[in-house]
Design a protein that fits this description.
By secondary structure, the protein is an alpha+beta fold. Helices cover about 30% and strands about 30% of the residues. The chain has 2 domains: about 15-75, Winged helix-like DNA-binding domain superfamily/Winged helix DNA-binding domain (Arc Repressor Mutant, subunit A, Orthogonal Bundle); about 85-240, 3-Layer(aba) Sandwich (Chorismate lyase). The protein is built from 10 helices and 10 strands. About 25% of the residues are buried.
Length: about 260
């Protein structure tokens, strides 16, 4: 087993950091079902902590049903450990966002007013440093952290709904109730490493790979009414894309470009 670096500066206790590392590896399948974890002494050496710290981490795993502990046999990973996955469809992205909002539970972490950073101002088509509402939320799926969300909304749009409802009602529903029905969504998907604040919220390692999504929503009149920066566990969020040729035979008619090194790798 490859060790992970623990961060003593985080508010998360070291035993819980070990628990999170082992839990994620088990749920990703990196540590297979029915396999035996290294012993307490070996884990203590790998993580650079005391056996008492390791024992507490293993107890949490056992309490969650992820492992079973047997005298003389060690700590064994439970079978059938699997996380539910949310599926999004590019063909019906707006509908998928509605469904995701209804299928997951939201926690409201912060609502505040800030001056728009340049990228936010550009996306919302407002002056740089204009005030916007910033909302930070965390969504859970089947009780486990699923996504960490930072949303920026123009103040005149935010004034149309109750900020307290952000902890109970999906943002798209609130916008629709406020007369700002979303009819256009543009988004960009990339990969990123978990920052400490995001890692803590998603209960994963600092630097762990995350799916990063930037999404701009526009109302029927084409006005940007929200920009969102979202971070997801990559094993819990899956996109489905299906494409078709615009015209029959179009692919055959187009001349294939000469292969390049970049295309081959």
């Amino acid at each position: 087993m490859q060790p992970s670096v623990l961060d003593e500066n985080l508010p998360t206790p070291l035993y819980h950091q070990i628990y999170l590392i082992l839990r994620d590896r088990i749920k990703r399948g990196d540590i297979g079902a029915h396999s035996v974890l290294p012993g307490e002494q070996e884990l203590s050496r790998l993580f650079g902590v005391s056996r008492i710290t390791v024992k507490r981490a293993l107890k949490e795993l056992g309490d969650d049903g992820l492992v079973t502990r047997h005298r003389g046999r060690g700590t064994i990973v439970a079978g059938g450990v699997a996380l539910p996955v949310v599926n999004a469809n590019f063909d019906n992205l707006i509908e998928s966002l509605y469904v995701m909002g209804l299928e997951t539970d939201v926690e409201l972490l912060e609502v505040t007013t800030v001056r728009a950073p340049p990228e936010v101002a550009q996306a919302l088509e407002i002056p740089v440093d204009a005030e916007v509402q910033r909302v930070t939320r965390r969504r859970r799926l089947a009780g486990s952290p699923f996504s960490y969300l930072r949303t920026f909304v123009p103040l005149d749009v935010a004034a149309l709904y109750n900020a307290q409802d952000l902890g109970k009602i999906p943002m798209m529903v609130l916008l629709e109730q406020a007369g700002m029905r979303v009819q256009d969504v543009e988004q960009w998907i990339s990969a990123t490493a978990a920052e400490p604040v995001v890692a803590l919220a998603l209960e994963t390692d600092v630097g762990a790979p995350l799916l990063s999504i930037e999404r701009v929503m526009r109302s029927a009149g084409g006005r940007p009414v929200q920009i969102l920066f979202a971070f997801y566990h990559p094993d819990r969020y899956r996109y489905h894309i299906r494409t078709r040729a615009k015209k029959p035979g179009a692919a055959k008619a187009a001349k294939a470009p000469e292969p390049t090194l970049a295309a081959l790798v």
